[in-house]
């Protein structure tokens, strides 16, 4: 049996196990399993690897996308450039190589959402590991951006001092924070949604629930919206290719 999985905390919202179970059934893959491994801290990864010698690879989610990096033996170019890992391949000799497949999902998501449009400016909500991948892809596309963070040292603005005119001119707004994820479905990033227009594009990396409060506020203002399902599927397939290359 070849085992794969997801590490992070909490994992009650995750659809990864269901996605891979459906993939295995659809494609007739009988010798593989995918499980959720909720770790109390990144130090618990060593014990998980020792207990699960047939774990061939795993995905990484909040809050360990950066914390896992010192525990790895090698990093792909994307992972080094972004400074975050969401996919780890375990070789036969036990060595661990970190990759970032979030960028694959983000490229596909922006293609789907923007449909060829090139916003002059973007606003990225959150400064964690997922945000770093967003920043990387926006830089690839030549889209300048500002960061909004709860920490004054990490962003251009905090949620308390974000000017309305910045929201108005940032026609692409990406929620790269976990705010609004199940079960806290009534929460949304605290930005002035009254300045969102039909010319805006809102991308939420959250996929559970499918329509977050962030996206619903955008929908009510006539904006183009997309949730994180495309990113989930595309990054999962990219992970599968890495594990089985």
UniProtKB/TrEMBL annotation:
It holds the Pfam family Shikimate_dh_N. It comes from the Bacteria. Pathway: Metabolic intermediate biosynthesis; chorismate biosynthesis; chorismate from D-erythrose 4-phosphate and phosphoenolpyruvate: step 4/7. Residues 6-88 form the Shikimate dehydrogenase substrate binding N-terminal domain. SUPFAM superfamilies: Aminoacid dehydrogenase-like, N-terminal domain, NAD(P)-binding Rossmann-fold domains. InterPro entries: Aminoacid_DH-like_N_sf, NAD(P)-bd_dom_sf, Shikimate_DH-bd_N, Shikimate_DH_fam. Keywords: Amino-acid biosynthesis, Aromatic amino acid biosynthesis, Oxidoreductase. This is Shikimate dehydrogenase.
């Amino acid at each position: 049996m070849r085992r794969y999985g997801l590490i992070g905390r909490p994992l009650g919202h995750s659809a990864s196990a269901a996605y891979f179970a459906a993939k295995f059934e659809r494609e007739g893959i009988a010798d593989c399993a995918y499980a959720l491994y909720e770790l109390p801290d990144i130090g618990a990864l060593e014990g998980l690897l020792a207990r699960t010698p047939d774990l061939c690879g795993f995905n990484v989610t909040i809050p360990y996308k950066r914390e896992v990096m010192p525990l790895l033996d090698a990093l792909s170019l994307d992972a080094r450039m972004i400074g975050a890992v969401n996919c780890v391949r375990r070789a036969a000799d036990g060595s661990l190589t970190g990759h970032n497949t979030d960028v694959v999902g983000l490229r596909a998501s922006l293609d789907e959402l923007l449909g060829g449009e090139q916003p002059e400016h973007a606003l990225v909500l959150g400064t964690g590991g997922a945000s770093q991948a967003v920043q990387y892809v926006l830089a690839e596309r030549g889209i300048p951006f500002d960061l909004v963070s709860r920490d004054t040292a990490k962003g251009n603005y905090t949620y308390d001092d974000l000017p309305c005119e910045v929201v108005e001119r940032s026609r692409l707004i990406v929620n790269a924070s976990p705010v609004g994820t199940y079960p806290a479905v009534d929460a949304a990033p605290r930005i002035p949604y009254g300045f969102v227009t039909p010319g805006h594009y809102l991308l939420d990396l959250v996929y559970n629930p499918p329509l977050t409060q962030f996206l619903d506020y955008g929908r009510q203002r006539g904006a183009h919206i997309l949730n994180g399902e495309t990113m989930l599927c595309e990054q999962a397939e990219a992970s599968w290719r890495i594990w089985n290359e």
